[in-house]
Amino acid sequence: MSDDKITITGKNLLGASLVVVLLIGAGLYLTTGDGEETPAGYMIAGSEVTEEEATDFIDCLDEGGLTVYGAEWCPACGQLAESLGGYEIVDPIWVECTVEGQRCEEEMEGEGVPEVHINGYYETGVIPPETLAEETGCELP
Prior knowledge:
By secondary structure, the protein is an alpha+beta fold. The protein contains 5 helices and 8 strands.
Protein backbone atom coordinates (compact mmCIF):
# COMPACT_ATOMS: atom_id res chain seq x y z
CA MET A 1 0.00 0.00 0.00
CA SER A 2 1.30 3.40 -0.94
CA ASP A 3 1.61 6.43 1.32
CA ASP A 4 0.89 8.78 -1.59
CA LYS A 5 -1.24 11.68 -0.55
CA ILE A 6 -3.33 14.09 -2.57
CA THR A 7 -2.85 17.68 -1.59
CA ILE A 8 -5.45 20.26 -2.54
CA THR A 9 -4.16 23.78 -2.58
CA GLY A 10 -6.22 26.94 -2.61
CA LYS A 11 -5.44 27.31 -6.31
CA ASN A 12 -6.74 23.79 -7.09
CA LEU A 13 -9.86 24.34 -5.00
CA LEU A 14 -10.59 27.63 -6.75
CA GLY A 15 -10.18 25.99 -10.16
CA ALA A 16 -12.43 23.07 -9.21
CA SER A 17 -15.05 25.45 -7.84
CA LEU A 18 -14.99 27.45 -11.05
CA VAL A 19 -15.52 24.30 -13.13
CA VAL A 20 -18.51 23.30 -10.98
CA VAL A 21 -20.05 26.78 -11.30
CA LEU A 22 -19.58 26.74 -15.08
CA LEU A 23 -21.15 23.29 -15.38
CA ILE A 24 -24.14 24.29 -13.28
CA GLY A 25 -24.53 27.55 -15.19
CA ALA A 26 -24.40 25.73 -18.51
CA GLY A 27 -27.43 23.69 -17.44
CA LEU A 28 -29.51 26.86 -17.11
CA TYR A 29 -29.38 27.65 -20.82
CA LEU A 30 -30.56 25.98 -24.00
CA THR A 31 -29.04 26.54 -27.41
CA THR A 32 -31.24 27.51 -30.34
CA GLY A 33 -30.63 26.14 -33.83
CA ASP A 34 -28.42 29.11 -34.72
CA GLY A 35 -26.20 28.50 -31.68
CA GLU A 36 -27.61 31.42 -29.67
CA GLU A 37 -28.14 30.70 -25.97
CA THR A 38 -31.53 31.44 -24.44
CA PRO A 39 -32.86 30.98 -20.90
CA ALA A 40 -34.28 27.51 -20.31
CA GLY A 41 -37.74 28.74 -19.34
CA TYR A 42 -40.29 28.93 -16.59
CA MET A 43 -42.29 26.29 -14.75
CA ILE A 44 -46.08 26.48 -14.92
CA ALA A 45 -48.14 23.71 -13.36
CA GLY A 46 -44.99 21.60 -13.17
CA SER A 47 -44.11 21.90 -16.87
CA GLU A 48 -41.23 23.89 -18.31
CA VAL A 49 -42.40 26.57 -20.74
CA THR A 50 -40.71 29.39 -22.63
CA GLU A 51 -40.86 32.98 -21.47
CA GLU A 52 -43.26 33.77 -24.32
CA GLU A 53 -45.62 30.92 -23.34
CA ALA A 54 -45.53 31.99 -19.69
CA THR A 55 -46.18 35.63 -20.59
CA ASP A 56 -49.03 34.69 -22.93
CA PHE A 57 -50.61 32.55 -20.20
CA ILE A 58 -50.36 35.32 -17.57
CA ASP A 59 -51.76 37.86 -20.08
CA CYS A 60 -54.69 35.53 -20.75
CA LEU A 61 -55.35 35.18 -16.99
CA ASP A 62 -55.26 38.99 -16.75
CA GLU A 63 -57.70 39.39 -19.65
CA GLY A 64 -59.86 36.69 -18.05
CA GLY A 65 -60.35 38.86 -14.96
CA LEU A 66 -57.85 37.27 -12.56
CA THR A 67 -56.14 39.29 -9.80
CA VAL A 68 -53.98 37.83 -7.04
CA TYR A 69 -53.38 39.71 -3.79
CA GLY A 70 -50.26 38.45 -2.06
CA ALA A 71 -47.33 39.33 0.16
CA GLU A 72 -43.67 38.45 -0.19
CA TRP A 73 -43.49 37.11 3.39
CA CYS A 74 -46.32 34.61 2.75
CA PRO A 75 -45.18 31.03 1.93
CA ALA A 76 -48.50 30.18 0.23
CA CYS A 77 -48.14 33.31 -1.94
CA GLY A 78 -44.68 32.19 -3.01
CA GLN A 79 -46.00 28.74 -3.82
CA LEU A 80 -48.82 30.21 -5.92
CA ALA A 81 -46.48 32.61 -7.73
CA GLU A 82 -44.00 29.79 -8.46
CA SER A 83 -46.75 27.53 -9.83
CA LEU A 84 -47.53 30.33 -12.31
CA GLY A 85 -43.93 30.84 -13.44
CA GLY A 86 -42.44 32.92 -10.62
CA TYR A 87 -42.74 36.41 -9.22
CA GLU A 88 -40.96 37.97 -12.20
CA ILE A 89 -43.64 36.76 -14.63
CA VAL A 90 -46.88 37.21 -12.62
CA ASP A 91 -46.62 41.00 -12.35
CA PRO A 92 -49.67 41.78 -14.57
CA ILE A 93 -52.01 39.82 -12.26
CA TRP A 94 -50.21 40.29 -8.92
CA VAL A 95 -50.92 42.95 -6.31
CA GLU A 96 -48.09 42.96 -3.75
CA CYS A 97 -49.75 43.95 -0.49
CA THR A 98 -46.45 44.89 1.16
CA VAL A 99 -46.13 47.61 -1.51
CA GLU A 100 -49.77 48.40 -2.32
CA GLY A 101 -51.28 48.07 1.16
CA GLN A 102 -54.03 50.63 0.58
CA ARG A 103 -55.18 48.87 -2.59
CA CYS A 104 -55.25 45.53 -0.78
CA GLU A 105 -57.30 47.00 2.07
CA GLU A 106 -59.81 48.48 -0.38
CA GLU A 107 -60.14 45.56 -2.80
CA MET A 108 -59.63 42.39 -0.76
CA GLU A 109 -62.75 40.73 0.60
CA GLY A 110 -61.16 38.19 2.93
CA GLU A 111 -58.72 38.28 5.79
CA GLY A 112 -55.63 36.63 4.35
CA VAL A 113 -53.31 36.22 1.41
CA PRO A 114 -53.08 34.87 -1.15
CA GLU A 115 -56.52 35.99 -2.20
CA VAL A 116 -57.46 35.29 -5.81
CA HIS A 117 -60.23 37.28 -7.48
CA ILE A 118 -61.78 35.91 -10.66
CA ASN A 119 -64.63 37.81 -12.27
CA GLY A 120 -66.52 38.82 -9.15
CA TYR A 121 -65.73 36.03 -6.73
CA TYR A 122 -62.70 35.21 -4.63
CA GLU A 123 -60.88 32.31 -3.01
CA THR A 124 -57.97 32.24 -0.63
CA GLY A 125 -55.03 29.88 -0.66
CA VAL A 126 -53.00 28.17 -3.32
CA ILE A 127 -55.22 27.48 -6.30
CA PRO A 128 -53.76 25.18 -8.97
CA PRO A 129 -52.92 26.77 -12.34
CA GLU A 130 -55.25 24.24 -13.99
CA THR A 131 -58.19 25.64 -12.02
CA LEU A 132 -57.22 29.24 -12.76
CA ALA A 133 -56.96 28.40 -16.46
CA GLU A 134 -60.35 26.72 -16.46
CA GLU A 135 -62.04 29.58 -14.57
CA THR A 136 -60.66 32.23 -16.95
CA GLY A 137 -61.02 30.27 -20.19
CA CYS A 138 -57.25 30.15 -20.70
CA GLU A 139 -55.28 27.21 -22.00
CA LEU A 140 -52.29 25.99 -20.00
CA PRO A 141 -49.09 26.35 -21.98
